[in-house]
Amino acid sequence: MSSNNRRGGSRHRRSRSNGYNNNNNNRSNVNNKNLNNNNNNNANNRNNVNNNNNKNKGNSKNISKITNTNAMVQFYAEKQIPSSQNSLSACHLNITDAIRCEAELTLEVNAPKLIAENWVFYVPVPPTTSFQNSGSVKIMLDDPSIEAPDCQFLTDINGREVIQILVDVSKHKHFSKSIKLSYLFTVNLFGRDLYFDPNQSIPYQIADDTEIKSSLSVNNSFSFYDEEFKQWMESEGSILVRQQEEFFDQTVIYAQRVFSYITSNFEYFWSSNLDRSLTNIIETKKSDCGGLSKLFCSILRSQSIPARCVVGRWCSSKVKNDKSCHVVAEFYVDQIGWIPVDVASKILHGSKKQSSDQGKLPYFGEIGTNFLAFHIDYDFPLDSVYFGTSNLRHLQNPPHWVQSSQGSLQNHSFSYNWQILSRESL
């Protein structure tokens, strides 16, 4: 993602466009060292971005500010609750619980053989979902200097919001060999449970045009127009095909049938080099939470139902740092709103829970207050500033780069620590 702001005094000049950086060549030589904690591939397709100076779409409101007090630099951004209206549907999402959660993700980078000149970081702003709102993020940098780093608030064409942090070591000299940032996420979380009652009318969340369009799109992650995927859909007969009557409220019936099919015929599997392509998932009939959620969303998108993956971390008080990353899915039905589903949890833990009296399966149309969303869907082409554009699959571990003309990356290391600070009832 890119910005049009200039920073005076830098001896490194870079070209800017109206969208993502057009430089396709990552530079890594004796004069420029690239340290990135993700597998970076230059993006072939560039999505355009808009600076936050443009008017916000829909009914959400963004607030941002920079403060620098007591050696702690903070950048704050918050997204407010979207508009809603009373539903005409017989299906409703009940609120079963509500909490205010604070969680901190700390990134520490050490490069003892390097003399850093500039650091680049990105962090997502928590989105509004079926179970989360009023999300905010504070970036805290232990910094005795009086000058704040350059922070930019950016939004891509799908409405996803990130903050870019640029640290010029000439103004923060103690960061020449190491740096430590803390990202403080604060959100309202709601337990949700889908139920049927034709005699009720309750408010539901309205999706804006940007959300609907992005949740129906075809891209590298959701390649449901590929011939192999279409042939697989056809081979399964009518199970995965939306029937004529399965619109409006009946969309829920179809979505649960897809959910049931996946959770009955696929296995949960994770590895560090897992291939999460749709082709591999349907061939091997296994994947992790990200792959299984993507399969569910791809099937629904192929039937013109808005569906999206929600990427984040578990935020219960008992969560272990190395097992906190998770992905769930949501699909949208007019007059009901975004409906949460957790495909992986159904496969792993569904045998311990029974269907509801109304026939709803466990982990379908329900979610607790133990998951904090970082962003929607995958694939972030991010401007690394000094090394071109890097296409990152997700931001569960917010990325970083370091630029230098002196030293080497020998013995460099980085680590993340995820900690739940508080969970208070609303």
Write up this protein.
The protein has 426 residues and is mostly beta strands. It has six helices and 22 strands. It has helices at residues 209-214, 227-235, 251-265, 278-284, 289-302, 343-349; strands at residues 49-51, 62-69, 72-79, 84-86, 91-110, 118-124, 132-142, 150-156, 161-168, 178-196, 203-205, 267-268, 286-287, 307-314, 325-333, 337-341, 366-367, 371-376, 380-383, 389-392, 400-403, 413-425. Strands 2, 3, 5, 7, 10, 17 and 22 form a seven-stranded antiparallel sheet that branches. It has a five-stranded antiparallel sheet with strand order 1-8-9-6-21, with no helix packed on it. It has a four-stranded antiparallel sheet with strand order 16-15-14-18. The longest helix has 15 residues, at 251-265. The chain is globular. The chain starts with 48 loop residues before the first strand and ends with a strand.
